[in-house]
């Protein structure tokens, strides 16, 4: 009787342990290959003849074919590294403006060789234009931007990094509007009293966000304070200079103050009034004087 050596037996056990059970699996043999072909229907005219605004969001339909050797998992139900369709923004000279685009799901898993048609079962791709100014178009061209569609295997790689083709269109992005020097968004957490006693004070949580391009300095010779004005029902100013409240910190453009406590004082005469919250850079300007909107609440004074 022929015997099996210990080494041969060990090798047999190892081979059996690594073979798949229950037939072949979807995982490719050998290195995974990232490859795609694109089907964009009539999108060439949409981008090359279109004009987009900074911050604008829109949806386009794209078709793709899996030219690789592994299944693209549309959702995180069997595989942790699911596939999204996204994009990158460049200027017309190829300089990167924004790498990370919004992610859009595939409608279903896509095995090697399978196709998603741009009209029948497309990928609905949501695109957001960066809120920045692109360089102006060069002479003789109407385009100043380039969008490049790409696929990403989350947590692993962008397909383009692995050598796959992208889908690119030149287009025109309008100039981003210049931010005002002084502008704010106010949040009173619905805490402004609807009724106050004449001449009384009230304190409550408040917050502001800097939507201008100048930093709000908490201290220094010209600090920025939160304040307010009182108007009567006819829109006439009753009290312009409200109490001042210091900010808890310096606030850069785009930043928020965080929560702080504001104190207001009611007019001394009973009636129906409107309080309009405003910011003031002491010795320079009230924000409303530069065109910034105020935050308005109605208050009944008794």
CATH architecture descriptor name of the largest domain: Sandwich
Tally of individual domains: 2
The radius of gyration is 30 Å
* Fraction in helix: under 10%
Can you tell me the CATH class of the largest domain? Mainly Beta
Described by strand count, sense and barrel closure, the largest sheet is: 7 strands, mixed
Structural class: mainly beta
Distance between the termini: 110 Å
Q: List low-pLDDT spans.
A: 1-30
* Average pLDDT over all residues: 87
Tell me the number of strands.
21
Q: In CATH terms, what is the fold-level topology of the largest domain?
A: Immunoglobulin-like
Task: Give the full name of the CATH homologous superfamily of the largest domain.
Answer: Immunoglobulins
Strand content: 35-45%
With helices defined by DSSP (H or I, 4 residues minimum), what is the helix count? 2
Shape designation: elongated
What is the H/E order? HEHEEEEEEEEEEEEEEEEEEEE
């Amino acid at each position: 009787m022929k015997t099996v050596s210990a080494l041969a037996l060990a090798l047999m056990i190892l081979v059996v342990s690594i073979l798949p059970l229950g037939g072949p699996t979807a995982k490719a043999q050998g290195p995974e290959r990232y490859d795609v072909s694109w089907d964009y229907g009539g999108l060439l005219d949409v981008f090359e003849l279109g004009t987009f605004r900074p911050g604008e969001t829109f949806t386009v339909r794209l078709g793709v074919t899996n030219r690789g050797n592994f299944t693209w998992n549309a959702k995180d139900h069997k595989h942790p590294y699911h596939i999204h369709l996204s994009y990158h923004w460049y200027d017309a000279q190829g300089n990167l403006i924004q790498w990370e685009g919004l992610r859009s799901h595939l409608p279903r898993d896509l095995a090697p060789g399978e196709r998603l048609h741009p009209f029948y079962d497309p990928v609905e791709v949501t695109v957001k234009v960066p809120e920045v100014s692109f360089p102006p178009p060069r002479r003789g061209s109407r385009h100043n931007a380039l969008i490049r569609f790409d696929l990403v295997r989350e947590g692993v790689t962008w397909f383009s990094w692995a050598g796959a083709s992208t889908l690119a269109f030149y287009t025109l992005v309008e100039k981003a509007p210049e931010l005002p020097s002084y502008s704010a968004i106010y949040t009173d957490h619905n805490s402004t009293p609807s009724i106050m006693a004449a001449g009384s004070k009230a304190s409550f949580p408040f917050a502001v966000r800097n939507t201008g391009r100048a930093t709000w300095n908490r201290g220094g010779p010209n600090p920025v304070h939160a304040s307010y004005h009182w108007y009567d029902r006819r829109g006439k100013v009753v009290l312009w200079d409200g109490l001042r409240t210091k900010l808890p910190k310096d606030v850069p453009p785009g930043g928020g103050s965080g929560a702080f406590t504001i104190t207001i004082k009611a007019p001394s005469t009973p009636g129906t009034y409107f309080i309009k919250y405003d910011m003031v850079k002491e010795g320079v300007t009230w924000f409303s004087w530069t065109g910034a909107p105020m935050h308005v609440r109605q208050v009944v004074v008794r």
